[in-house]
Amino acid sequence: MKKRVIALLLVAVMAMGMFAGCGKKEEKNFSDGGKVLNIYAWNEEFKGFFEKYYASKIPSDVKVNWIINVSDNGLYQQKLDDALAAQANASADDKVDIFLAEADFITKYADSNATVDVKALGVTDFSNMYNYTVQAASDSKGVVKGVSFQCCPSALIYRRSIAKDVLGTDDPAKVQEALNSWSKFESVAATAKEKGYYMTASFASTFRVFSNNCTSAWVNGNKELVFDKAINDWIAQTDMFVEKQYTLKDGIWDDPTTDQMYKDGKTFCFFGPAWYFNFSMTKAQDAEKGCSGDWAICQGPQAHFWGGTWILGAAGTDNATLVADIMNAFTNDKDIVSKLVENEGQYPNNKAVAATYAADDTKGAVAFLGGQNATAVFAAMTDNIKWENHTKYDQLLNEGLQNKLQEFYKGSVSKEKAMENFKTYIKETYPEIVVK
Amino acid sequence: MEKPAKTKKKHGVSYAKWGYIFILPFFITYFIWSFVPQVLTFGYSFFKMYRSGLDQIGPEWNGIQNYVELFTTKLDGIPTVVKYAGNTMIMWIAGAIPQFLIALLLAVWFTSFRLNIKGQGFFKTVIYMPNLIMASAFSMLIWTVFSVTGPVHSLFVNSNLITEEFDFFFNKVSARSIVAGINFLMWFGNTTIVLMAGIMGIDQSLVEAAMIDGASSIKVFFKITLPLLMPILTYAVITSLIGGINMYDVPFILSKGYGTPDNTTMTLIMNVQQKLSTAKNYGSAGALSVLIFFFSAALSLVVFKFFVPHDSLKNMKKGGK
After folding, report:
1. Can you give the CATH number for the domain in which A182 is found?
2. Is the pTM of this model over 0.95?
3. What is the ipTM of this complex?
């Protein structure tokens, strides 16, 4: 009897679960008139810009609600996925209206039914946006699902004083000349080491430079995990850098690494786009212990980009007009975009605005970089950015590889074991990926 | 106990059913929030059911495939589940041994009428304190203390105990010891309180009689207190064991979810979380949860048999004093 009851219950509940999964697709997946604007983000960066430059334009009867979860270990994506899955049945005030996505996982959301065609919302002018930012936010049929307020060519950010000591110059053109290939980069690292400096502050510093120049995606059409030549090159170079102590053994966001940004740091260079030196290098900007002004940028060994934040409209939003207006404001409103460049040190996703700053060295001067015109440097690099070989799995594959290899660099395991652990980690995280 | 019930029955009014009515809310919530999910988990474990990106795959009948995969995914030549179960037990035992030894000692001291320790309330509060802090917050604190930029590392460097960078969280022994240490610190106060309650339930005249006959404190402890404390001690060990098998937040935070180093701090529940968080893999996570359920049941039974000898079970059935 008892068994029969349990069996019956099991069947009933399972059946209910199946029906719940079959929601109907709506024709028009956005509307207007919502009173709460829910925005999902993984840090405070966009919130800061939003509150400074846009908040005043929001209708007084609409409340803005920020839901911020850190992105480590995929937490942000988990929370967002849960919210999007519940979107159809959520009450009007709980519906996700806007969410932000990063280069590592935008593909997952852009190429899905969870996002809205921005052209239908009212964002129609893409002429000033950089092409790769539009490609990244497009689904497999070419429908654009989001816009980015930043363009993220990534530069080599070096300490002027250390460059003078190691290379005898801190002139960006000459430093670039000395570092424009990996073999030159490695030989400068050796010189830096002799003079008591580290070349980079984290074993993972150069990861994006390599991974961005992959010729194949992490996962191929047969869902097999693929190690691109660029990834293998990165591992080989990092093995050597760690062994010869050209770099440190902690992750890019860890304290031992970021402590190197202080005045008494011994690190020659970091890699990053505009958002990196204005948002993530706070230790270098510290008034007392930092060294603002002692930095400069150049392209470095290989062109690449890193990250970037896209604004996407969630399917089912009840603030469609407002969402479109926000998207337009941070990409096509010259006034706001100029302020992002001038006050926030952003490199904008607006070619026209970028061009005016790139052409004018007094307007484009960044105090943190000792007066260098960052916009001009980045503008020259934007042509080389390509959006290719991205998958929806990228974030945890990139993070997982770095974390598992770190165990080798810290001396916990052998290299082979670290790679085996990485593969097991992927198998257990993504059941559909075939790992050989 | 029976007498008053009988007298009441004579008057024709039974309050017996009220007892059931008052505990009904528990059973209703238990049924909805615990029992149904348990049954569901069991059901899911036979289905292929996960998300690829935002797309739902399945549910699709999969037989015992999920279980088979659990045992064919291997690390170091052994199935990962076995390795993670081993990690969990090692870290639990390493924390539980000091936890029970110290809790027993403190419980005996606090209840001893001969020692009559002053300021008991203060000490009890202090030893219970770590349990009031959220495990994750406590782990964050300990992480900061032991990290390579933290005070313990600089102390070791300054006293020349280590010459080059030593990351406590990248060494198997130290990483596991820190997890065990946190569990010990968090739970020994709780165990002390439970054991004290047990000891206070023991008839003090037995202890006094033994003392008058010339028994030493140690003899009294081993011959009187400990045997009579067994039922409570068993309860404490089993609850601790179940808590240990469910160990999650402390090692998760210390290893950032990766079970660093070399998956040696990866526990069973961390593995469930890993399967469930990104891919929402209810199939595989369900299969693992079912295994954990039987693992806990089996181990609890072993502990029960080990601590409670057969004849004392008979005594217990005969009723109290």
Report:
1. 3.40.190.10
2. no
3. 0.86
